[in-house]
Amino acid sequence: MDENIIIVLCAAGALFILIAAIGLVRMPDFYLRLSVTTKAATLGIGLMLCGAAIYFNEISVTSRVFAIILFLFLTAPVAAHMIGRSSYFIGTKLWKNSVIDELKDQYVKDSHLLKSHPDQEITADLDVEKE
User: Fold this and answer.
1) What are phi and psi of 107, to 5 degrees?
2) Neighbouring C-beta atoms of residue 108, cutoff 10 Å
3) Angle made by CA atoms 113, 117, 122, in degrees to the nearest 5
4) Under DSSP, is residue 100 helix (H, G, I), strand (E, B) or coil?
5) What is the spatial distance between Cα 92 and Cα 77, in angstroms, rounded to a whole number?
6) What's the burial of 42, exposed, middle or buried (CB within 10 Å: 0-12/13-18/19+)?
7) 3-25 residue pLDDT tens
8) pLDDT of 33-80, one tens digit each?
9) Is 115 helix (H, G, I), strand (E, B) or coil?
10) Where are the alpha helices (DSSP H) in 27-105?
11) Residue 107 pairs with which residues in a beta bridge?
């Protein structure tokens, strides 16, 4: 029974990693490539690690696997967000068929804060007082 579960988990993990690899080649711009690889590869690696935890069936391996999965699920989306945000700031172009750029004219170029950010209002008030 355990062998079937391991086979299903590892096969599903490999399938998601394959989807991430295909998405890396097929997606038209940097932002879509970043999105598909982060989501699919993270899920694929998590499934394969779950299969490894069931295969070894030891508490030390299982605890390490779940620590790795937790760390991966916490850091991968944050890293992808920061990479995407910094690439937007340096001017990486969107796909030519993109319909809307929701961030256009929403950032202050000097501070990289959103215009609706509460700290930006405080900074703007301080700049007015200095003048």
Assistant:
1) -105, 145
2) 13
3) 95
4) coil
5) 19
6) buried
7) 999 999 999 999 999 999 999 99
8) 999 889 999 999 999 999 999 999 999 999 999 999 999 999 999 999
9) coil
10) 30-56, 59-90
11) 114
